[in-house]
Write a structure and sequence with these properties.
An eleven-stranded mixed sheet has the order 1-3-2-8-10-9-14-15-13-11-12, sandwiched between helices. The protein has a two-stranded antiparallel sheet with strand order 4-5. Strands 6-7 form a two-stranded antiparallel sheet. The protein is of the alpha/beta class and about 575 residues long. The longest helix has 26 residues. The protein starts with 7 loop residues before the first helix and ends in a 6-residue tail after the last helix. Helix 15 links the parallel strand 11 and strand 12. The chain is built from 21 helices and 15 strands. The N terminus is likely disordered.
């Protein structure tokens, strides 16, 4: 069919629909291209030019890719090559590895290594030496028990003042009691929990104690697969999905004796706090939402519904909900914790980390889940010093302009050398680099989801659907250029990082992007409270806004940020 002149404004006005020109280019690719490209340029009445309405639609489409510098002959040559060469390869690769969503299989071999040194040390992982507690007595109130630390709960179990079954029952009751208000739980793993608790109690009766996590309940963000239970990824498209996969992090916690009581909310496909069942709220102020896709782990830990939980971060999903909900959370060095069995957004950005009550608890969980995952190409056996033996008086810690000065003064009073600090770098596209990297990688893992139109029923259309449609037209060359710019950023940050650690706002977006691109560990620590804006007239509300700070260190220096003496 001939393209009418009256159709040209719609075609050339690609802002009208976002991808009109790309669609039009695809139509052109599906039609017969003139066999003689040279003659096509000179003969305005050729079949090809008649079909494309002269060069305007093609120019428009190439402009969409910032490639309008090609002349007419070259554009037609590219269209022909796209149809005859590129598309068959696209189709073959897609059929081979992209028919299943989530990135659980066939990981990319473009592996990111966050280490700043060129040499890879060979070593045997040494476990941390935890502080020993004595004289811990079981509180009378179940609520007081619910807010005890991991070491305290572990001592109650070890001294047989409390069984794992009893502790599991306490936390399952709290999950069910408060979930209606917080919308933080996707699935209660009750049958599994009591089975694991019974096993923990049996081992202890036989004189076998597995360590501080023996018999301790916990929750997993619902992008982490556990056999026989739904792994919904927070999305209505996958809300009935059951994966016959045992995630590596779940295996590690199971071997440490921990008891899984719930699969906790992930924002839909790990984006923010909206999921197919609602929107997760902040326990300190239920008029607020928790923010960040690790919404369930943050809210549940904050409310004493679990002693700890495992969440994930690609771009702020640990730091934001931890800061909003007022819990301590650790985003470890990239590659520290294996990700087999976990929904993938971006293989060079995704990280798993704990939400806890304290830095001590975070260090205990990190010790249990770190190590080389043989099926995760980016995971490494990273040699970490013991955070419980860090001499903080030998540390130089910088503080940024937005640091909480009260924290600065407290650390200085403990003997830490505190100095003003600024992280210098010239790369001015940090946020764009992260978006390019995350969105293109995510689309590769959810190609079928988008092509089949499942994005039309996504919970928040302004989120992944919009971003991934935009990612569809990022050229491969510019994706690679973004990774080169990322490399420059990493080199500049390494040269500028002249302190052992620095403190600053944990939710500054530029810093969140930078930290994830570089692979920096950070711990988010609650430091106080302030009144909510516009409280009720009688000021009787107990709702609060939490004040937090972030402690950042170079890659593989997680022991510094998780040092209990520094927090």
């Amino acid at each position: 069919m001939m393209l009418k002149e009256k159709n040209l404004p719609l075609v050339s006005g690609w802002t009208h629909s976002g991808i009109t020109c790309v669609i039009f280019l695809a139509v052109i690719c599906c039609r017969t291209v003139a066999s003689d490209v040279k003659n096509a340029e000179s003969d305005e009445h050729s079949v090809c030019w008649a079909r494309v309405g002269h060069s305007y639609p093609l120019k428009c489409a190439f402009e969409f890719f910032d490639s309008s510098f090609f002349n007419n002959t070259k554009m037609l040559e590219i269209v022909k090559g796209q149809k005859e060469f590129n598309i068959p390869i696209f189709t073959a690769n897609r059929k081979l590895i992209a028919s299943v969503n989530g990135g659980l299989y066939d990981p990319s071999y473009l592996v990111f290594n966050s280490a700043w040194g060129s040499e890879q040390s060979q070593h045997v992982t040494k476990r941390f030496k935890y502080p020993s507690l004595s004289g811990i007595k079981k509180p009378r109130s179940e609520q007081d028990i619910a807010f005890m630390s991991i070491l305290e709960l572990g001592e109650l179990i070890k001294t047989k003042q409390l069984t794992s079954k009893e502790l599991t029952e306490i936390f399952l009751k709290r999950l069910k009691r408060y979930n209606h208000a917080l919308e933080a739980v996707v699935t209660y793993t009750e049958e599994l929990a009591y089975k694991q608790a019974k096993e923990a109690d049996k081992l202890l009766a036989q004189g076998v104690y597995l360590g501080p996590l023996h018999g301790i309940p916990y929750g997993l963000k619902d992008i982490i697969a556990v056999p026989h239970y739904k792994t919904t990824w927070g999305s209505r498209s996958f809300k009935n999905q059951v994966l016959d996969i045992e995630a590596w992090v779940y295996k590690r916690l199971k071997s440490a004796g921990a008891v899984l009581v719930a699969k906790l909310v992930s924002g839909s496909l790990a984006y923010d706090d909206i999921w197919f069942g609602g929107r997760t709220r902040n326990p300190w102020n239920i008029e607020e939402f928790s923010t960040g896709s690790s919404a369930g782990p943050a809210a549940s830990t904050s409310a004493g519904m679990v002693p700890f939980a495992i969440g994930s971060e690609t771009a702020g999903s640990v730091t934001y909900p931890a800061a909003r909900c007022g819990v301590t959370a650790l985003r470890p060095t990239f590659g520290t914790v294996g990700r087999t069995g976990v929904m993938s957004l971006s293989e060079s950005l995704d990280k798993l980390g704990p939400f806890c009550r304290s830095a001590t608890d975070c260090a205990i969980i990190l010790d249990a889940i770190r190590g080389k995952d043989p099926d995760d190409l980016s995971s490494r056996d990273i040699l970490l010093d013991d955070p419980f033996s860090v001499d903080i008086t030998k540390l130089t810690v910088g503080y940024l302009e937005d640091a909480e000065m009260e924290v600065v003064h407290v650390l200085a009073s403990k003997g830490v050398n505190m100095i003003p600090f600024k992280l210098n770098y010239t790369v001015d596209s940090v946020q764009g680099i992260l978006n390019f990297t995350m969105d293109v990688d995510m689309l590769a893992h959810f190609d079928e989801w988008q092509r089949s139109g499942k994005d039309d029923v996504y919970e928040a259309q302004e989120q992944w659907p919009t971003e991934l449609r935009r990612a569809r037209v990022i050229p491969a060359v510019d994706y690679v250029q973004a990774q080169r710019a990322r490399g420059k950023l990493i080199r500049e940050v390494r040269e500028s990082f002249t302190v052992d650690a620095f403190i600053g706002n944990a939710t500054d977006w530029e810093r969140v992007c930078l930290g994830n691109l570089v692979g920096l560990p950070v711990i988010v620590v609650p430091t106080g409270f302030k009144n909510i804006p516009n409280p009720p007239p009688n000021n009787s509300t107990r709702r609060r806004t939490t004040i937090t700070t972030g402690i950042y260190a170079p890659p593989e220096r997680d022991h510094i940020v998780s040092s209990s003496q520094l927090n």
